[in-house]
Amino acid sequence: MPREIQTQVTPEVASNEFLLKEHVAKLFHVSGTEIQKVVVLKRSIDARQKAVKFNIKASVFFKAESYQKSEIALPDYNNVSNSQEVIIIGAGPAGLFAALQLIELGLKPIVIERGKDIRGRRRDLKAINVDHIVNEDSNYCFGEGGAGTYSDGKLYTRSKKRGDVDRILKLLVGFGASSDILVEAHPHIGTNKLPQIIQDIRDKIIECGGQVLFETRVIDFVIKSNEIRGIITQKGDTISANKVILATGHSARDIFELLDKKKIFIEAKPFALGVRAEHPQELIDKIQYSCDFRGEYLPPAPYSIVKQVNGRGMYSFCMCPGGVIAPCATSPGEVVTNGWSPSKRDQSTANSGIVVELKLEDFKPFAKYGALAGMEFQKSIEQKAWHLAGQTQKVPAQRMVDFTQNKISSNIPKTSYVPGTTSVEMGEVFPGFLTQIMREGFLEFGKSMRGYMTNEAILHAPESRTSSPVRIPRNEETLEHVQIKGLYPCGEGAGYAGGIISAAIDGEKCALKIAALLLIQK
Q: pTM for the whole thing?
């Protein structure tokens, strides 16, 4: 039987299999030749002291013990060509993993995606970055794989209680992700690698008899006696099914509007909103690792920070070491930012959303919109940013210290945001209460992270799509909508997830509920 250990090692030892084996041998007071294999189970960085260490949890196989490398295999997916059909609206992580789970359980998914496939999306991302043209159906938020495909592929989640995180990670490995995601405390695939994995998932769905329809936008639901009967697309087609998973993501405003128009119960949901701050990665390394230069065995440093300011949380969100800032508008006439990193996280800048939690009372000026009040609040800020930036995809920007001093920056250096920046006083973008909280919050951040508060840091506004501004209530036991039978609100867009892993878990949950119900009916 292998023995499990937990230990701390230097970055060099953590990155070298031979040195790690020698370290473990010393712990057991044996020769290195007595250790057959050290299998790292979990790895995380401890940068609390000046000498940065790695925490390692590992299984140790001695020479006389049997060791066989375990391969991650995909489940035996069924051919579901002639099986009962379930419609899935949205090909993000919730939709795709719901589809895989349905196939595994013998049901046929019909995945309906408003955007384009992986290859088609790339052209539209180039158009928004270079030509400032926003395709409402194909952009950083919409298209095959959803928002995460081209905005990082972060897999870290605090939602351990929601479901089997390891199962999702193993499925991703089975579809081509590095097995490192099973080990790292903050796993990450990278925007350069995730698209191929998403494409392979789509190919598997089709190979098993499922369908994936791109550039197909849902414009109506077919409902009779409060039961779903199917959907109608912008092409005029009606697709029938009495089970529909609604996994459209946090930015599908037209779906929220459709639900509201049809008097299908939805409710406003608080979310967080703020800016995206970009620092030189070298500066973040110095702060986090307490060093002049980051060594070759350390990854680009991330950071995570939370403060309470005037009774509200202000915190870092979706931090991207060695990453870039991207334009994530989903309609013409608005500016939205987000961040991503390639798999090597090798860009010269680090960025993070710095956001403030909002409350339902903040949406009172938009009360006439009812459940869509938060969405309209969000939209108003994005549209204001667009106007302030010259009605292009340039982003309002300001140096961090200048922002805290209510001072327009005389110049903005080139940042990683490709469409460009316009120097603006951020107080013009945000409501007064939000501006004041952020000003005070950045001063507090500077006290906790010495060197963080600097005019080398550039703020880009707004970071506004942190989560859905709407919740689509569902029955906690059946996961069906509280009003419409057979409609399963799912993932981030419904208010039940926050990231790739939790969305994928929620997609699987909905698929399991549907399969269990259909089996009972049989």
A: 0.95
